Amino acid sequence: MKLLGLISLISIQATAGQTWKITVDQYINAELGSNVTILCSFSNPKEYDSDDVKVYWKTFGKTIEINDKDKKAFVYHPNETFMLENYRGRTKLIGDIKKKNCSLQIQEISPNDEPTIYMRLSIKENYSFVKNPVNINVPGSGVTQATNDQAVTILPFTNSLPPSSKFTC
To answer: 19-162 falls under which CATH superfamily?
Structure first.
């Protein structure tokens, strides 16, 4: 009987150890007017596996009225009418969601673009990767980055900072 209890405990711990994960560049340098590709892949706990997966990209800077806990505005949504107006027609999901690829392309980087964005998944439930944002730096612009409702000014990258760092959680 003690052995059966031990086996159940091991099984529960293995299931509990599965987490939501994302691999994405933390910093991306871009020039005004250029196109940016954000390479992104994700994994989810097995109990959330589904053929019905939706990927969204959101910003920290603006909020919208939406029936969701995450009220941050969309820079990418499959239905463009839900997106911030200045992103409509400029963002597209280029990854294959069925292969857990959430890569995004933003065309013609503008000084009005939000400097920090993050990915949100909808698979049976919604999950936002707010702790794994992508910071798009336009050298010399001195844009303001807003994360978790706190604003900071991003200075142009110097040689002391890596041009690209990856988050893998």
So the answer is: Immunoglobulins (2.60.40.10)
